[in-house]
Structure formats: structure tokens, C-alpha cells
Amino acid sequence: MITTVLLTLIAGAEPLPAENSNTRVTGGVLAPASLPAGTNAIYGFVGAPEVGVGYRQGFGFIEFEARGVFNIFEVSILAEVGLKFAVFQADKLRLAPTVALGLELNSGARYFDQLNFGFLGLRPRIGANASYAFTETISGVAQLELPVSIALTVQGFQVTPLLGAGAEFHLGGSFSLLLTGHLGFDATREPLGVTQYRPAWAARLGVGYRLF
Predict the structure, then answer these.
(1) Which of 116, 121, 143, 183 is geometrically suited to a Cys-Cys bond with 164, CB 3.0 to 4.6 A?
(2) Overall number of domains in the chain
(3) What CATH number does residue 59 fall under?
């Protein structure tokens, strides 16, 4: 009886297996919404107003993500780390809330954005990712992002909630292609100014590569 109990405990302590060939979900940029345990991916994206690169590592219920982002319009740089939580999975649908924290350096350039201002600050972000595998090669994706830029060197902030949707396509091998569009609004308060509200948008074209 003792031997049986020990074997049961050892089996329960084994790490979660990597996704097998029967349940493999293609994608690497946004799909799947959270990576299964033992899988990881690298990706890059271009678009407006941002371009960037990232790394994803799945641990089962939690996924770790690190990103580097350059904002073309604001001439700002962001280094960010975050977590995704695989709270819901039903058949081909996955839902994962996200939390992240970044360090942002903004040049204050106003070539494209007349409300932009220079600062060094923190950029916490919350949101949620969703993905649905329509076929073995096409996944629909949706994303809610709520980033808040908190200036540390001056008095000011920027909040830009965005809701996006699109699709990620398996290109063959370990590669995938992402196309998304995002809409929302922006609230910016410059130093010694008042909060200004305006529409916000983004478009992204990304390529992901699944390492495992």
C-alpha cells in the first residue's frame, strides 16, 4: 500500500508534458493565446505606430513573455516582461488574461504627435488574449490591451486602451504569419497641461517561429 502511495505521489509530481502532435496548436505571435508547457517561440512585428520583437515561454498555466518595442510616431523605446494565465480552454478556444510591466524611454519628438512629451517612466499593462483554431493552419485572434505610461521624470501620463482582432496563419514548418488591426482611444496629459482625449489605432504584421 505504501509503495502504491509513493508511486502515485511521484507520478503527480512529474512536470507537465510538452504539447504532443495530436494536440499541437500552431502559431507563435498571438496564437495560441497561451503556450502549452514546454513550448516556446520568438516573434517580430512591424506596423504602425509600433515595431518590436518578443519571446514566449509556456509553463502550463503560466506563460512568460518578454518584448522590446519601438514606437515610430513617438520615437520611444519600451522593454517589457509579462505573464499570461491560461484560465480557460475549451476545444479550440483559448483565453488568457495578461499582466506586464515595462520601462519606457520617450524622446518627446512631436513630428507626428503634437501631444507627445519626453520622459522616463514605468508602463504597466493589463489585458486579455483570445484565440480560436478554425483549422490546423488558421487561428482567429482577439486582444484587449490597457497600457498606462507613468512618467517618473516629469508630471504626466498616457493611457491607450486598444481592442484588436485578426488572424494568424501557419506558413509551414514552425513559421506563422499574423495580421491584426486595433482600435481604441488615447488619453494624454502633458506636464502642466490638461488631459486630452483622441482616437487611437494600430496595425501589425508579425512573423512567429515556434522553437519547440
Answers:
(1) 143
(2) 1
(3) 2.40.160
CA distance 106 to 115: 12
Distance CA 117, CA 130 (A): 33
Domain, as residue range, for 159: 2-210
pTM, two decimal places: 0.86
Q: Which three cell numbers stand for residue 58?
A: 509556456
Q: Which helix (H) or strand (E) holds 4?
A: helix 2-13
Q: What is the Cα–Cα distance from 201 to 181, expressed in whole angstroms?
A: 8
H-helix or E-strand spanning residue 13 = helix 2-13
Cα 61 to Cα 36, 40, 80, 89, 170: the distances in Å are: 8, 14, 20, 11, 24
pLDDT digits (tens, 9 = 90+) for 183-212: 999 999 999 899 999 999 999 999 999 988
Lowest pLDDT segment from 3-12, 39-48, 90-99, 184-193: 3-12
What secondary structure does DSSP assign to 83-137, as a single string? EEE--EEETTEEEEEEEEEEEEEE----SS-TT---EEEEEEEEEEEEEEESSSS
